[in-house]
Specification:
single chain
Length: 165
């Protein structure tokens, strides 16, 4: 993570895409993230992963501020974050693995909350409904219906993502 971020920081400190060119705080924000990451390294080495996680969470508001300042859609960011995790539950449902669906649902539910905070209209509620119905099918052991429900979940997501993502 540290080496990957160093590459990212070098790139975007010198090259700034059009959407970021007017952001006078970008370079200092990227430096602030590097400082936070460096401060966490000893915690990781010492095994204090709980505190490391809490300290790394300080990075999120820095990037969110960058996104907001530069007009990026927070809904789009939340949708992409949810999508990556959603693929895991879709794979589990298609494999008829009810245990994995039940295991993944809480994490997916948490990843969907930022989407709901940004927008909670009928289309967003349809995604939530399809996600929760997939869990209900897994809990009921209705393996045969999970694939179709996974398709519904993906379809409802794609509909929102194509319109607003």
């Amino acid at each position: 993570m540290v080496s990957g971020y160093a590459v990212f920081q070098r790139k975007y400190s010198t090259y700034q895409p059009y959407a970021l060119r007017g952001d006078r705080q970008l370079v200092s924000d990227l430096q602030q993230v590097a400082v936070i990451m460096a401060a966490v390294e000893p915690l990781v080495r010492d095994g204090d992963l709980h505190q490391a996680h809490l300290d790394l969470e300080k990075i999120r508001p820095v990037f969110q501020d960058i996104f907001k300042r530069n007009g990026f859609s927070m809904l789009a960011v939340a949708l992409v974050d949810f999508h990556d995790a959603m693929e895991l539950i879709l794979d589990a449902a298609n494999a008829k693995d009810a245990g994995k669906v039940k295991q993944l649902h809480p994490m997916l539910s948490d990843k969907f909350k930022p989407v709901e905070l940004e927008a909670n209209d009928v289309e967003i509620q349809a995604i939530r409904k399809n996600l929760d119905e997939l869990l209900a099918l897994a809990q009921a052991g209705n393996l045969g219906a999970m694939r179709a429900q996974a398709d519904q979940l993906k379809s409802s997501f794609v509909k929102v993502y194509l319109k607003r993502g």
